[in-house]
Amino acid sequence: MKFSEAWLREWVSPELGTQALADAITMAGLEVDAVEPVGAEFQGVVVAEVIARTPHPDADKLNVCQVEDGSGESVQVVCGAPNVDVGQKVPFARVGAVLPENFKIKKAKLRGVESRGMICSASELGLEEGRSEGIYVLPADAPVGEDLRTWLQLDDRTIEVDLTPNRGDCLSLRGVAREVGVLTRETVSAPAASPVAARIEESFPVTVSVAEQCPRYLGRVLRDVDLSVATPLWMVEKLRRSGIRSIDPAVDVTNYVMLELGQPMHAFDLERLEGGIEVRLARTGETLTLLDGQTVDLDDRTLVIADGNGPLAIAGVMGGELSGVSRQTRHLFLEAAFFTPLAVAGKARDYGLHTDASHRFERGVDPALTAVAMERATELLMAIVGGTPGPVIEAGDPDLAFAGAEVALRRSRLDACLGMALPSDEIEDILNRLGMTVTASAEGWLVKTPSWRFDIAIEEDLIEELARIHGYNRLPVRRPLARLGLTADDEATQPLRRLRRHMVSRGYQEAITYSFVSPELQALLTPGGVSPALANPISSDMSVMRHSLFPGLLKALMHNLNRQQQRVRLFETGLVFQGELDALKQTPMFGGLVCGPRDVEGWASRRENVDFFDLKGDLESLLALSGSRDEWQFEAETHPALHPGRTARLYRNGEAVGWMGALHPAVRSQLGIKPDVYVFEVTQASVTHGAIPRFKPLSRYPEVRRDLAFVVEAGVGVAPLLDAIRRRAGEWLTQWQLFDVYQGKGVADGHKSIALGLTWQHPSRTLNDEEINQLIAAVVEEAESRFGAVLRS
């Protein structure tokens, strides 16, 4: 909400300076974003009248003008503006004047003709953004010789307030003035708005088909208006200082009433209406060309204002081009309505719009304002464009309109929340000044809220109102008193921060992606996966909750690849959402991906790209942090989004907890990703839960190592073979490692040689050859019987 300080002080004028006033508004919870002058600094500019104009003798685009500036003598000025003419009142910068950016006016000769001053445009005075097309023509009643800055009241400030969505009641001068009056205990003087009596009996029929969405709709005919007249300068300036451009008197008045009272209004060209006005839901297949020129296909859940020919406007959002007013309009139909917030919420965004009207209706407009705004707009229009008003007609069901809420406020709860006891007189005074009706009760008070406060529904809302008006800075500050015991540190649990630091140390960067993703991308990566769809998504490609971390990570990868970042290593932690809303399972997951060259570019770097085992090594190093590496197994399985020959399912103690593998070539092709991509995803609980480190004495006796090479079929996995060998190798086996896998000359086709190093050590004595040979025999027998392995000679 943006407004001028001078306009606010017409309503309420406390004895506070500009900054003190802004501070008071901010401390009341209405944050002031900016306080700026309404115009740039300039000096020596007065109101003047052009009394003569002749073409420049040596320049086709210049005119030699004589102006009367109140000094008693005419002043000669050379002007290049195409719209300058005799009889105009204009801003005139005398010799010696200083314009914005310290531009000083001096005597000059333009093509040999003397010029003593400058006729100014609005942009040259800092009153308009961009470059003006001509000089700034002032109203005919502007006083010649008057200092322009004083006459336009440019020693004023604009105050811009950033309102939270619950304070729609402050989206007007009326609302802000009411708040300032409450804060400073000053009287608020609203402009007088007397009912305008009907002078003709003519009315235009109105019906409301959906009264639950539009409880009040008021309309009025205004005949014989003259929209060719100019909007008064005082109104143009107030609109400009509120960030709204003047268009024509009808539009300007409705915008002015919206800023002044908070009630959006609309004016239709009566001669373009057919039959009667109907407030209804749009019908399938209907379209509407809006005032901004775009044509939209109306959804059958959209509330519209229609006549006999079809939709005229999207209710509470924007009017249509067909029924819009113009300078040639002779008769008006004014509307003022109350649309419920739920009827308008999200509708502007559905059509790619955001208007001042929708901004207000979505937050709640006082339903009691419709009649007041209608009379105020009628009064202003008649004063500017004339006209003959008809009676105000009303349709809908006013009983369905919001009329405030009744909320019980307990003294005990109030004192506990504020940490102090406010005097009862002050409590009732604050609530009364906020427009509430207060009735004492046994436990405290029963409070009836006004019709403009949609945000007050529970006891805590009233407590917040009392706290902010009394002053947050005046509430007592006390340290909480509580018995605080130290929480036991679970040494078996790895904190996420440690896992994150580990991934960063391996060259990864943490990604934080949205929890909602494209349904198409999700179906591609987790076909058959079910997750909730959003009722009101940000966009169509972010309309379902993620079933996996893969979609977000892959979108981040594509973003980087599209910007020539070929070496990408990302990880993410976050929730995934599986199942329908009524049986939703939310699981914290840990995921990551790698893509591109194995090493950072350099003269000594390897040039090959990452492969499956690079990611497996990084993941195994992460799992090893828990101290329970032996509990993990990688088993070859298939995943619909991963390469069937380069995919593993992750198990911990037999429980499936994640996946890792290469992205399927068909998926990469569909996503437009050329290089190989390797991804993993595992539950956070499985990687954070570990074992408590325990001390184990070191043996002082020598180790015994034996190397064995087995020839097995190529399809035999190494991990199952190693698990079987460990179980038969005895309790004294301390180390085991795979140090060679060979296929080629000397090994039969379809087979491979697996070389293992096994190390034994006894804690209290030296192992002899007989004991070692028995263990080796048991290992060989297990490998032969279970895997058909042959000991290679």
List the helices and strands and how they pair.
Elements: E1 2-4, H1 5-11, H2 18-27, E2 31-37, E3 43-55, E4 63-68, E5 74-79, E6 89-99, E7 103-104, E8 108-110, E9 113-115, E10 118-119, H3 148-151, E11 157-162, H4 173-184, E12 206-208, E13 216-223, H5 233-241, H6 249-261, E14 265-269, E15 277-281, E16 287-289, E17 295-297, E18 303-307, E19 310-314, E20 318-319, E21 332-338, H7 341-344, H8 347-350, H9 356-363, H10 369-385, E22 388-389, E23 393-396, E24 406-410, H11 411-418, H12 424-433, E25 437-440, E26 444-448, H13 459-470, H14 496-505, E27 509-510, E28 516-517, H15 519-525, E29 544-545, H16 550-561, E30 568-578, E31 585-595, H17 612-623, E32 632-636, E33 642-652, E34 655-663, H18 665-671, E35 677-683, H19 684-688, E36 704-713, H20 718-728, E37 733-742, E38 751-760, H21 769-787, E39 790-791
Parallel strand pairs: 12-15, 27-30
Antiparallel strand pairs: 1-11, 2-11, 3-4, 3-6, 4-5, 6-7, 6-10, 8-9, 13-21, 13-22, 13-23, 14-21, 15-18, 16-17, 18-19, 19-20, 24-26, 25-26, 28-29, 30-31, 31-35, 32-33, 33-34, 34-35, 36-38, 36-39, 37-38
Helix pairs in contact: 1-4, 5-6, 6-10, 20-21
